[in-house]
Amino acid sequence: MGVGFGIGCRECDYKKDFMLGIGFDYNPRSLRDIDSKYAMLQYLIKSNAALSLVKRLIKDKNGKFAGKCGHRIYICSRCGEFHERFSYCIYHDEGYFEPKFICNKCYGILNLLNEDKLKRLCNDKSIDLSEYYCPSCGRHSLIKEGSAQCFWD
Ligand SMILES: [Zn+2]
Ligand SMILES: [Zn+2]
Predict the structure, then answer these.
(1) Most exposed among 1, 20, 65, 88, judged by the fewest C-beta atoms under 10 Å?
(2) Which ligand minimizes its atom distance to the CA of 135?
(3) Residues of the chain with pLDDT under 50
(4) What total of structural domains would you count in the chain?
C-alpha cells in the first residue's frame, strides 16, 4: 500500500523521491491511540513540540482528528522545494489545530499541494510539471520519474 515515485530535472541533477504512503489516509480513530504499543503518532509527527502538543490536545482538551490525515506533498513558498509531510487537523474544545510546516532548507512556509494535483502526480504518468520550477536550477524543467502505485478509496 502506498506510492513511490520521483521528481527529476532535465536541466540539472535535481532529484527527489517520495516513498511513503502518499495519498493514503489514516483512520482518525486509530490516530487517537497515543498510549498503546500500536500507537503510530510518534512515527508520523516528527516534530517533538508538535507531538507533545497533539498529545496534550487529545488528553486534556478532547481533541479529535478530523478530515483527511495522511502524507501529502508540500511545496516551499520560498525556494520551491518539494517536501513530504504528515498532514492532519485536530478539533478540540477550544478550536482546532493544524500544523504549519517550514522548509528545512530555507525556512520558508510550506504550502500544501492540492488533492487534485496530488492524485494526478501519483497516477498520471505523463503529468505536466512545467508550472513548478526546479528548486535547484530554477528552470521549469521538472519531470516525473519512476513508477507510481496508488490506492484511492
Ligand atoms: Zn525552501
Ligand atoms: Zn534543475
Answers:
(1) 1
(2) 2
(3) 1, 148, 152-153
(4) 1
What is residue 152's predicted lDDT score, i.e. its pLDDT?
Answer: 47
Distance of CA 102 from the midpoint of ligand 1 (Å): 8
Domain membership flag for residue 28: yes
Give 11 Cα–ligand 2 centroid separation in angstroms. Answer: 5
Asked whether residue 150 is assigned to any structural domain, the reply reads no
Residue 110 belongs to a domain? yes
Structural domain harbouring 135: 5-145
Q: Are 41 and 54 in contact (CB under 8 A)?
A: yes
User: Of the ligands numbered here, which is closest to the C-alpha atom of 139?
Assistant: 2
Task: Quick: pLDDT tens for 125-149.
Answer: 778 888 999 999 999 999 988 654 5
